[in-house]
Amino acid sequence: MPKLQRPTNGRIIAGVCAALGDRFGVSRNIVRLVFVLSTLLPGPQFLIYVILWVIIPNEPAPTEIDSPAI
After folding, report:
1. 3-37 b/e with 16+ CB inside 10 Å = b?
2. Angle between the 45-55 and 28-38 helix axes, to the nearest 10 degrees?
3. pLDDT in tens, 16-51
4. What Cα–Cα distance (Å) separates residue 33 from each residue in 19, 53, 60, 61, 67?
5. 56: nearest Cα among 26, 21, 15
6. Cα–Cα distance between 14 and 21 in angstroms, integer?
7. How far apart are alpha carbons 64 and 68 in whole angstroms?
8. 70 located within any domain
9. Measured between alpha carbons, how far is 16 from 7 in angstroms, rounded to an integer?
């Protein structure tokens, strides 16, 4: 199972939904849709999103060693 990291590519706002989708093997768009639909219900969805934004680390930037030679 992949690590829980916010990706550098494919982010919409902060990459929280993309990170959760990648981690659990679900489409990023489905996670985003579930989050948007959950905002219709009362609750602390935005607060949880901001907390996850702070807690989940960024994906490490690719280094020159990791990138393929041109």
Report:
1. eebbeeeeeeebbbbbbbbbeeeeebeebbeebee
2. 140
3. 999 999 999 999 999 999 999 999 999 999 999 999
4. 14, 18, 26, 27, 33
5. 15
6. 13
7. 8
8. no
9. 9
pTM over 0.90? The answer is no
The parent domain of residue 5 ranges over 1-59
Sign of CA dihedral 47, 48, 49, 50: positive
Q: How far apart are CA 24 and CA 64, in angstroms?
A: 29
Concatenated DSSP letters for 32-57? HHHHHHHTTSSS-HHHHHHHHHHHSP
Is 66 among the domain residues? no
